[in-house]
Amino acid sequence: MKFKIKHFGPIVEGFTDHEYMDIRGVSLFIGSQGTGKSSVAKALSTLIWIEKALIRKDFTVKQLQSPGRFKSHFSFHNIKNYFQDTTELEYIGEVYRIHYKGEKDLSVAEVQRDADVYIPKIMYVPSERNLLSAYPKPTALSGLVPSLTTFLEEYENAKHFLDSSVDLPISSDTSFSYDRLNDTSSIIRKENKTKLSEASSGYQSIVPLFLVSRHLSNQLRNRVSVSELLNRNDWMSYMKVNMKRAMNMQNELNMLFNRNLKSKKDEKAVQKLSEKLINRYIPSCFINIVEEPEQNLFPDSQIRIMFQLLSYMNFSEKNQLIITTHSPYLINALSLAVACRQASEKTDAESNIRKKLSEIVPQHAWLAPDNYTVYKLDELGNIFLLDSIEGLPSDDNDLNNYLGQFNDQFGDILELGEL
Known about the structure:
Helix content: 40-55%
Number of helices: 14
Mean pLDDT: 87
C-alpha cells in the first residue's frame, strides 16, 4: 500500500523523499516525543479500515463522501481534531484509492476491479494497554476511548481461548495463566505465582500485546477452508459476521450460485468464485499496528518480543507489522533478523550454519531485506526514509545517535576531570 500525509496533527510536510510512503511487510516509525509517530499510525489504521469497510459494503462511496462522514471515522483513535484546513491524506490500497484534500474534496476511486482481494484483520495495540493489566477487572472500566475498548475485547477473547498456561517471550521460565472461573490473570515464574495486576509494569505491558497478537495470528492461520465453512449450518456465527454483513454476503452468494447454475459452470469454478467473494468479507490476513512494543521492558525482552511479532507476521505473505518506537534495540533486532536471512542464503542451506543462525534469531522471525521500511520523524513535522546499507537498516539513525552522543559526552567529562 501507498500512503501520503500532510498537515495533520504534528505532521507538516510529511514524507518528501518520494511522493508516497511504501507500507509493506514491517514498517517502523521512529522519532522523539510529539513528532507524530502515533498520528501517522492511527491515520493509516483508519484508512486501511475504511477501505476494508468499502470492500465489505458496510457503506457506499457516496455515503463516505457525505458531510462529516469521513472525518467521523477518525474519532475511533481520538484524532478527529487533528484535521487542518490544509490537511492532505492519500491512501492507495489493493482496491481503493482514497484522497482527502478538504471537506469538499474527497475522492474515492477503485484501483482495480474484480481482483482477488484478501481483507485484513486490523489490530491497533495502543500504548495505554498497561491500564488493562493493572486493573484487576478491566471489563469493569468505563470511559475508555474506542480503540482501547476494541483492544480490550480482543484481549478478553484471547484469554478465554487459552486452555493452559502460555510461555511469555521474556525468559524461558516465565508464563501467563488465566483462571476463567475466577476471572484472574497471573504471572508464573520459578514456581512463584503473582496476579498480573500486582506484577511489574513490564509484564503488564507485554501480556496484552503478546496474547492478542498470538491469538489473532493463530486464528487467521487456522481459518477453515471455504468449502468447510459453507457446509457449516452456523457459519455466520462461527465467523462472527454481523447481521448486515452476513445478509450482504449471503445475497451475493445466492446470486453467484443462481447465475452459475444457469450458465452451467463446473463446481470447481463456482467454488473458486465463492472463495473470492468470501475473502471480501472474512479476514484472511493480519495487520498488527503496535505502539511502543518496548514499553517498560529490559532491552533483552524488547528484542524477544520483536522477534515474536516478526514471527506472527511471517505466518502469511499478506500479513503486515506496523510499529511506532523510541527504542534503538528494535531496529537492532530488525537488523539481526534481516542479517540471519541473508547469511542463510549465502551458506547453500548448510543445516549446521542455519541451526547456529536460528540460535541467534529464531528462524520464523527471519526477514527478507526488501520486506521492511524504517521512517524517522523530526520535530519540524517531516518524515524521512532511513537509509539501508546492503539491505540492513543504517546505524546512522536518531536512536543510535543518542547512544553515541552519550558516549561522546561521557568522554568529555572524563577529559575535563583530568584537568
